[in-house]
């Protein structure tokens, strides 16, 4: 039994108790609790097989905020997930993949680990926030978001997230400290560091943000894992369309090892909304140093949380096109496609969202991935998801 | 009144005004709209409201808190539905940002998003952050007297100025004569077709003034559709610094 287990069990019980009291909140309280309950059904159509793998995920999230003092807030956010289905049964170490073991503060626990069912509870945010005038200090398990671009964020060196992991809308966090000082309405200086036991995992960097000529701009410098990093980002507009971008240069500080490489990541995006709610967005990403292979990428689909921003996609060139449209205030659809021109691979992602009630949403999502790179058969993944989400 | 220049203003200007009475008519309409508009806005304000989108077989409600200073600065915080709670919008001059607390992220919004419907309602983003102004972007003219909800009203025609970035071809505004209450607006497109009707009612005292607290935006060609805004709390001319409208505060406000 890991030392965190009693803690996690208590947390889980407290979470459930809190959920049942949500409706009893009053106006003057110094805490807030909200979250959601969702179910996700996955149909995995494996190429070469006639059968379909069926998996289910019941997922409860609790976001708790405690305003301890005018200057101090404590945040604790938990995700309780129950997995069951064919994939859970088929992959022997599925439980290990689910349980987050990479982070410094290990607050993840598999409460039940059966042959075809896993119940996991994870505290993915747990931090103290101290605010005084223009100063802000956050300590603990938090999300340090440095990205300003759409789709791809080379500047997001602390906690990369993958577009494919759509069900994790909060995105992974980092154990660390972030000190921020604001100047004026849009300028700030930040210093952030993660907590690690191994020097090669250590990231520490500074970020300077400012606003000029109606553009948000930023520069960053520091160390991210085994690389020295230098980055810049911007967000502005050209003739009514959004124009954003980010670039980061990763330079290994020791001799280049087999599993590390120097690379420049550059991404830019344009988006536009038409009056009839049609929204279009185009992005590209260049990753000069990557030499990944699709097969291991497909397997890594199961767990993105271990990946750095440099390794999110195994391709040098990626293009992303997205469009969405509201058929009514209750029904909206989107169609996204990612292509990797150098590697003859494509990812297609249609989605439909329906608002069933004020706090109840239904999604139908497809993910189709096809690559012709590896062998004559090619690698194909086809997934269909149905999701029901109740927010409170 | 010792100052001779002040004397000129006091006595000479009214007589000049008499001479150019055709201008007075336009000036009056401008003043009426301005007074009516000031009443709803104030130099600065804090508002708590709910917005309900009504359709023939369903409805959805959004609750927001908003702060504004003049036309250029505003901050909107979403309180409901639960899914969007804590999301905020900041507008400074022509720039708009959206705060997504769950991913700790500020997204700069493209200007084209302004003309989109706001959260699926019959209001556009522009209506909400008041990009265009009924005072400055239109030529106003009193065209008739009429009675609305028992109040004697001016009927004012508003035509957009040539260089104004506005969506409407023409607006009729109905303003009460006694208290400059906005009671009815009719919005026409450039071809002269009625597109939207806004009815204002539930006249109540809010903070230091009496004004309509319920707005209904009704699209002309869609039976059973409307969006209802109910003001629950309004405070005007609050002491609020320009720095209140910052990235920092967008994240902290509650």
Automatic annotation (TrEMBL), chain A:
Protein species of origin: Splendidivirga corallicola
Official protein name in the record: Alginate export domain-containing protein
From TrEMBL, chain B:
Uncharacterized protein TP-0789 domain: residues covered: 71-252
Keyword Lipoprotein: yes
InterPro entries registered for this protein in UniProt: Sporulation_related (IPR052944), TP_0789-like (IPR033399)
Gene3D superfamilies the UniProt entry points to: Lipoprotein localisation LolA/LolB/LppX (2.50.20.10)
Domain of life: Bacteria
The keyword Lipoprotein is annotated on this UniProt entry: yes
Keywords annotated in UniProt: Lipoprotein
Classification via PANTHER family: SPORULATION PROTEIN YDCC (PTHR37507)
Protein name per its UniProtKB record: Outer membrane lipoprotein-sorting protein
Species lineage: Bacteria, Pseudomonadati, Bacteroidota, Cytophagia, Cytophagales
């Amino acid at each position: 039994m890991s030392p965190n287990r009693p803690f996690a069990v208590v947390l889980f019980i407290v979470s459930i108790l809190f959920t049942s009291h949500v409706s009893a909140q009053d106006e003057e309280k110094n805490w807030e609790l909200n979250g959601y309950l969702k179910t996700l059904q996955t149909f995995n159509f494996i190429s070469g097989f006639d059968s379909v793998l069926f998996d289910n995920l019941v997922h409860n999230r609790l976001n708790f905020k405690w305003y301890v003092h005018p200057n101090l807030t404590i945040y604790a956010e938990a995700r309780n997930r129950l997995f069951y289905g064919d994939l859970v049964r088929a992959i022997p170490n599925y439980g290990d993949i689910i349980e987050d073991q990479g982070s410094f503060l290990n607050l993840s626990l598999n409460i039940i680990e059966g042959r075809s069912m896993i119940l996991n509870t994870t505290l993915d945010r747990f931090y103290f926030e101290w605010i005084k005038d223009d100063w802000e200090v956050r300590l603990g398990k938090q999300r340090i978001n440095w990205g300003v671009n759409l789709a791809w964020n080379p500047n997001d060196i602390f906690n990369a997230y993958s577009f494919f992991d759509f069900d994790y809308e909060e995105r992974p966090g980092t154990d660390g400290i972030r000190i921020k000082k604001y100047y004026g309405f849009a300028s700030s200086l930040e210093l952030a560091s993660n907590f690690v036991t191994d020097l090669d995992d250590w990231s520490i960097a500074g970020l300077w943000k400012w606003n000029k000529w109606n553009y948000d701009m930023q520069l960053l410098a520091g160390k991210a894992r085994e690389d020295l990093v230098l980055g810049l980002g911007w967000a502005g507009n050209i003739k009514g369309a959004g124009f954003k971008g980010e670039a980061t240069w990763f330079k290994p500080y020791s001799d280049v090892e087999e599993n590390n490489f120097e690379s420049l990541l550059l991404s830019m995006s344009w988006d536009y909304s038409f009056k009839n709610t049609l929204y279009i967005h185009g992005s590209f990403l260049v990753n000069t140093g990557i030499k990944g292979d699709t097969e291991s990428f497909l397997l890594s689909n199961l767990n993105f949380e271990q990946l750095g921003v440099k390794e999110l996609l195994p391709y040098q060139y990626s293009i992303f096109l997205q469009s969405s449209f509201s058929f009514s205030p209750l029904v909206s659809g989107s169609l996204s496609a990612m292509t990797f021109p150098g590697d003859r691979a494509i990812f297609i992602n249609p989605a439909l969202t329906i608002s069933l009630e004020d706090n109840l949403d239904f999604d139908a999502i497809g993910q189709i991935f096809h690559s012709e790179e590896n062998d004559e058969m090619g690698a194909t993944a086809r997934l269909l998801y149905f999701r029901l989400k109740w927010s409170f | 009144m010792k100052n001779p220049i002040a004397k000129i203003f006091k006595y000479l200007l009214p007589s000049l005004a008499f001479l150019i009475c055709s201008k007075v008519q336009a000036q009056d309409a401008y003043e009426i709209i301005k007074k009516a508009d000031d009443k709803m806005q104030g130099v600065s304000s804090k508002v708590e409201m709910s917005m309900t989108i009504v359709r023939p077989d369903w409805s959805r409600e959004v609750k927001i808190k908003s702060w504004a200073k003049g036309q250029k600065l505003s901050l909107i915080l979403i309180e409901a539905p639960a899914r969007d709670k804590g999301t905020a919008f900041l507008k400074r001059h022509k720039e708009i940002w959206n705060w997504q607390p769950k991913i700790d992220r500020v997204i700069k919004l493209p200007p084209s998003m302004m003309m989109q419907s706001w959260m699926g309602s019959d209001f556009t983003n522009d209506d909400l952050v008041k990009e265009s102004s009924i005072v400055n972007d239109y030529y106003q003219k009193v065209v008739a007297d009429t009675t609305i909800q028992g109040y004697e009203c001016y009927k004012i025609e508003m035509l957009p100025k040539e260089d104004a970035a506005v969506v409407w071809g023409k607006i009729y505004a109905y303003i009460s004569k006694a208290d400059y209450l906005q009671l009815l607006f009719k919005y026409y497109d450039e071809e002269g077709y009625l597109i939207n009707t806004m009815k204002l009612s539930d006249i109540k005292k809010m903070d230091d003034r009496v004004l309509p607290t319920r707005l209904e935006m009704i699209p002309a060609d869609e039976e059973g559709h409307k969006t209802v805004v109910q003001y629950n709390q309004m405070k005007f001319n609050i002491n609020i610094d320009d720095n209140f409208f910052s990235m920092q505060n967008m994240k902290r406000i509650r």
